[in-house]
Amino acid sequence: MKKALICGISGQDGAYLAQFLLGKGYAVIGTSRDAQINSFGNLQRLELRDRVKLESMSLTDFRSVLQVLTKVQPDEVYNLAGQSSVGLSFHQPVETLESIALGALNLLEAIRFTERPIRLYNAGSSECFGDTGDVAADESQPFHPRSPYAVAKATAFWETANYREAYNLFACSGILFNHESPLRPERFVTKKIVAAVCRIAAGSGEKLQLGNLGIQRDWGWAPEYVQAMWLMLQQDAPEDFVVATGKTFSLEEFAAATFSACGLNWRDHVEIDSALLRPADIDAGRADPSKAARVLGWQAQHFMPDVVRMMIQAEKEEKK
Ligand code: NDP
């Protein structure tokens, strides 16, 4: 039985990846900064809490990383942990950089130290590309990070590439574009919109406050994206991959689709709040995920309108 260690198992991707790997027959061990006090709500929601083993591990503490790796002896490690909000990264840049860049480095160094043939997935991000304009970014697109989060993710990406080249580690990064699900916290705009629209449709009378409606993003369905992570670690050689739907929509289109799915017109319920604008933002994030299709055989099955529909359905079921 293969053993997978998921760092950051309490998050959205961690929970879906645990579900997917358990389905593949893996023994799944997950880490949280404090496994004693974490309620693991996402694992509970997917009814996985008792099917995985949980360990406390702080990625910024080398000793704790090495201790868990030595104890668990995993075949595959998925690093999904770290401060994951672009917006919050402008307010907590040091925490963001440390948890992502130092965290990735500690993990790489600890894997090298154990001298075991561990395969590592690093959670990279499309935010590293910055504004792609009309160009659909593939793996050769240069990085131009525009937030502390993106700077940290770019650092972790190059750390991973460096350990692969310098020490022959099987380590790769998935450069994932946005992927959403009912497990997203409300800090993320997609979940914020879906939750507010459902409340408005139920008669709350509130206004939904949004920032820049013109930004364009590639929004996919999170449960599919974790399959691409696993596929990357099953290849003969470690490589980096862009993972996305290949279709870009504006935030206005996302909001309009959500309101319209509940029989409402977004213009009647949305207010623009300039306090929500970021110091630097990305106008457009466009992706070319053709390498993932060609090499991994992975292609997104769900696009933005499906994501909206499935998130609304889950939100309504949750509130029943
Ligand atoms: P989540 O925020 O849902 O989960 C990340 C986990 O990391 C949390 O559950 C938390 O676990 C841990 N964590 C949070 N803050 C810190 C911190 N300051 N220091 C250390 N650990 C922390 O993220 P997702 O599941 O959405 O994403 C998984 C990974 O993929 C992240 O690295 C994210 O940046 C990246 N990514 C996500 C995308 C998306 O659209 N979802 C797109 C591209 C990349 P605990 O509290 O238990 O320690």
How is this fold's topology laid out?
Elements: E1 3-7, H1 12-23, E2 27-32, H2 41-45, E3 53-56, H3 62-72, E4 76-79, H4 86-89, H5 93-114, E5 119-125, H6 148-167, E6 170-176, E7 179-180, H7 189-201, E8 208-210, E9 216-217, E10 220-221, H8 222-233, E11 241-243, E12 249-250, H9 251-261, E13 270-272, H10 290-296, H11 304-319
Parallel strand pairs: 1-2, 1-4, 2-3, 4-5, 5-6, 6-11, 7-10, 8-13
Antiparallel strand pairs: 9-12
This protein binds NADPH dihydro-nicotinamide-adenine-dinucleotide phosphate.
CATH topology group of the largest domain: Rossmann fold
Name the helicity range.
Answer: 40-55%
Give the termini separation.
Answer: 39 Å
Number of distinct beta strands: 13
Please state the structural category.
alpha/beta
Q: Which residues sit in consecutive blocks of at least 5 with pLDDT less than 50?
A: none
